[in-house]
């Protein structure tokens, strides 16, 4: 399993910290290493804990989030920044500080998912390079096949089995879709539905369907995959990165 992203949560409001920590706890890629309730405390924690990312409230007394972001850029290990605020007017200034993303309060789970995807794309390939497996081992006909993740087009869950559709064959595994997703992190895979995981390198077309849902066409495949409307916005952002 690749290295997780160490996160520091900074907000002067306890309930905001607790809400964000709760939402982030569902992401296996995020390891919350600490929290701080002021700008001064945030800088001290950043020095001590060396987080990969700081989820940083903008409006704080004495030292606000922008000042904290400026200060931590002087550290030997400069963390990525994801700003959080109830006011959208700070967006332009936030990106002047080279923020990865900008979350509006109250937190939206879909917006948070997009921010995490950006973090993973930016930070995890570096962490994964030395630790991720270059092959995915699956059984087929009582044999173990070692699949190159680049040759896997999509993965789906059906009848308590997870099906792996590669360019040459289709494989089955008893791993859950979540377990396969974890093993493929660091490669170009994205969840498009609760039961589907797709390799973005094979995406050919995204076609409107109904009720905000879409269908996805993959290069070299006739079948169309359903994209849940809950995943459409995040998928489109991933395809545009």
Features:
five-stranded parallel sheet, elongated
- Radius of gyration, rounded? 20 Å
Shape: elongated
- State the secondary-structure class: alpha/beta
Distance separating the two termini? 24 Å
Weakly predicted, low-confidence segments = none
What proportion strand?
A: 25-35%
Helix content: 25-40%
The SSE string, one letter per element, is: EHEHEHEHEHEEEEEHEEEEEH
Query: Strand sequence of the main sheet, in spatial order?
Result: 2-1-3-4-5
Largest sheet: 5 strands, parallel
User: How many strand elements?
Assistant: 15
Compute the number of helices.
Answer: 7
Calculate the mean pLDDT score and round it. 85
Ordered list of secondary-structure elements with their pairings:
Blueprint lengths: L4 E6 L3 H11 L5 E7 L2 H11 L3 E5 L7 H8 L7 E6 L5 H6 L4 E4 L4 H20 L7 E5 L2 E5 L4 E7 L2 E6 L3 E4 L3 H7 L5 E5 L2 E4 L3 E6 L5 E5 L5 E4 L1 H12 L1
Parallel strand pairs: 1-2, 1-3, 3-4, 4-5
Antiparallel strand pairs: 6-7, 8-9, 8-12, 9-10, 11-12, 13-14, 14-15
Helix pairs in contact: 2-3, 5-7
């Amino acid at each position: 399993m690749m290295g997780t992203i160490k996160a520091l949560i900074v907000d002067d409001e306890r309930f905001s910290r607790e809400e964000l920590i709760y939402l982030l706890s569902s992401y296996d890629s995020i390891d919350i290493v600490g929290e701080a309730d002021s700008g001064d405390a945030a800088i001290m924690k950043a020095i001590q804990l060396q987080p990969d990312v700081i989820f940083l409230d903008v409006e704080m007394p004495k030292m606000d989030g922008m000042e904290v972001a400026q200060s931590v850029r002087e550290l030997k290990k400069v963390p990525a920044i994801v700003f959080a605020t109830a006011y959208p007017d700070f967006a332009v200034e936030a990106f002047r500080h080279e923020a990865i993303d900008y979350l509006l309060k109250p937190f939206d789970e879909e917006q948070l998912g997009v921010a995490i995807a950006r973090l993973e794309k930016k930070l995890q390939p570096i962490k994964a390079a030395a630790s991720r497996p270059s092959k995915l081992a699956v059984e087929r006909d009582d044999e173990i096949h070692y699949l190159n993740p680049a040759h896997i087009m999509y993965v789906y869950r059906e009848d308590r089995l997870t099906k792996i559709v590669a360019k040459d064959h289709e494989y089955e595994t008893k791993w859950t879709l979540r377990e396969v997703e974890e093993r493929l992190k660091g490669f170009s895979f994205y969840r498009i539905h609760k039961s589907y995981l797709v390799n973005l390198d094979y995406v050919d077309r995204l076609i409107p369907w109904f009720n905000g849902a879409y269908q996805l066409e993959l290069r070299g495949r006739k079948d169309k995959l359903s994209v849940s409307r809950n995943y459409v916005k995040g998928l489109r952002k991933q395809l545009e990165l």
